[in-house]
Write a structure and sequence with these properties.
The protein has about 475 residues and is an alpha+beta fold. About 30% of the residues lie in helices and about 25% in strands.
């Protein structure tokens, strides 16, 4: 399934979770997965709400324990890696990606190693609930590839324990590197003065702790240590204070005055957990790609400002049918269209495999669903000649292909990293040359114009064998036929 996250009004972890539940994810099963990780600690509560005139799903997180432990990224990573069988491997993988991004951003912000970043008290449980919840919902909905919109981050400054800080807050600013953002609102309002999200999203949960973004941040305690606290000490204090300020001091876009050191602005629209989920789940930014939408989810933040729906939307669907010419090779056309712009690249160095086996390795990886597979000769330590085997896997298939790669080569490990690709739309047509049917790959540019037509060499070679001519001659004949068509 394909997905597109609409974060043009901002994003927070509970908002995305609400959208995914609205799109069809099973909240009761999400609760069971979270209970397997942190039993008896957190409870999800769903409600249908109105935000700016739009119906949306609100998922609140209730913390059930009085004194939750502080957790570092290192301890959270270990907990996820040692998760019981009730927690699906795909959910763990996605959560590690999201939390890793969040910890790296917070660590860079505070100048400490990511492993030392603290997720304090309630903030740790809230962040776990939002991230695990959203990742499990993502898995349930079988989303394998996703894009995201421009991210509205807000504007102005907010109060913090150590002074006032700019919007986007430091962690969001780092998480947004390389992603298109907009300050304030994407589209300015017309007519009457509204304050938009002037209060920020206010994605806190009603724990009685006075959180503004409680699930993204912690209590805001200044404990005087040198560790990064995942933005929680500063940021929750900021939003607790924000609620007490007069309207003009809360960062509204039409503020006529503000306290010293607090510039007017719309306030905070994107939280660190929300931004980390967007970056960890969506492979690339841009408009919604061509897709047949089969489900729509609308997730709500806490604040409700008239005329400014405080929501995140998620569109889920399938790639549309290709516009192939009559007689097109249907399976090839479908495979070509279902080529995601982002994938996992798998690699392993192998120095002890019989060279005669390598063609079969590549073929088996491709047959198992790899988007591509190839070999690179290398020289390893002590001058040993070896081969690096590479494969591109769709999101969701990387674990299975990694296992297959190790089984085929005897390698004890596989490196994986996420890659983004610029891909031209392609489809297949079919031509006939001397009675032989040959598929032709058709590539189109962003404007839909055909930029290249090329006969598939496998079909060319098969036709050459049947006709008893060389593959080179058959290729010339096929290209001439393509040019004539």
């Amino acid at each position: 399934m394909l997905a597109h996250i609409d974060a043009t009004a901002g994003i927070a972890g509970d908002m995305l979770l609400g959208a995914l539940v609205d799109a069809g994810a099973d909240l009761e099963h999400i609760q069971e997965v979270l209970d397997a990780l942190v039993p008896g600690s957190v409870r999800f509560v769903r409600s249908d709400v109105d935000r700016g005139g739009q119906r949306a799903v609100k998922v609140d997180v209730e913390v059930l324990v009085e004194d939750p432990p502080h957790r570092t990224w290192a301890s959270i990573r270990q907990m996820l890696q040692q998760a019981p069988a009730a927690v699906p491997a795909r959910t763990v993988e996605l959560a590690l990606e999201v939390f890793g991004r969040l910890a790296a951003a917070e660590g860079a912000t505070h100048g400490v190693p990511a492993d030392e970043v603290h997720f304090h008290e309630v903030g740790a449980l809230d962040s776990l609930a939002d991230v695990i919840g959203a990742c499990e919902a993502w898995r349930q909905l079988e989303i394998t590839d996703a894009t995201g919109s421009v991210l509205a981050v807000g504007s102005g400054r907010i109060r913090a324990a150590h002074g006032d800080i700019p919007v986007p807050v430091p962690a969001v600013a780092r998480l947004a590197l390389g992603w298109p953002t907009v300050a304030g609102e994407l589209l300015p309002a017309r007519g009457h003065h509204h304050h938009g999200h002037g209060h920020g999203h206010g994605h806190g949960h009603d724990h009685g702790h006075g959180h503004g973004h409680g699930h993204d941040h912690g209590h805001g305690h200044d404990q005087g240590d040198n560790h990064a606290h995942a933005h929680q000490r500063d940021h929750d204090a900021a939003h607790a204070h924000e609620e007490e300020l007069p309207e003009h001091a809360r960062g509204g876009p039409h503020a006529h005055g503000s306290p010293a050191g607090v510039a007017p602005g719309i306030g905070e629209l994107a939280t660190p957990t929300g931004a980390a989920l967007l970056r960890g789940l969506a492979a690339s930014a841009g408009p919604q790609p061509p897709m047949t939408v089969t489900a729509l989810g609308v997730g709500a933040g806490t604040k409700d400002t008239p005329g400014r729906p405080n929501v995140v939307r998620v569109f889920i669907g399938t790639a549309p049918a290709t516009d192939s010419a009559p007689g097109a090779v249907t399976q090839q056309a479908a495979d070509a269209h279902d080529t995601p712009a982002a994938a996992w690249q798998l690699e392993a160095n192998v120095d002890d495999l019989d060279p005669r086996l390598w063609p079969g390795v590549v073929e088996e990886l491709l047959a198992a669903g790899a988007l591509d597979a190839w070999l690179t000769p290398i020289i390893m330590k002590q001058g040993r000649p070896a081969v690096t085997v590479h494969a591109l896997a769709r999101a969701g298939a990387e674990l299975e292909l990694s296992t297959l790669l190790m089984d085929l080569t005897g390698s004890l490990g596989v490196r994986r990293h996420r890659v983004e690709r610029e891909i031209r739309t392609r489809s297949f047509e079919e031509i006939e040359v001397r009675g032989q049917r040959i598929a032709v790959k058709v590539a189109r540019g962003a404007d839909g114009q055909v930029v290249r037509r090329e006969p598939e060499f496998r079909d060319v070679a098969a036709a050459a064998r049947k006709l008893g001519i060389s593959a080179r001659e058959m290729l010339d004949l096929a290209r001439a036929a393509v040019a004539e068509s």
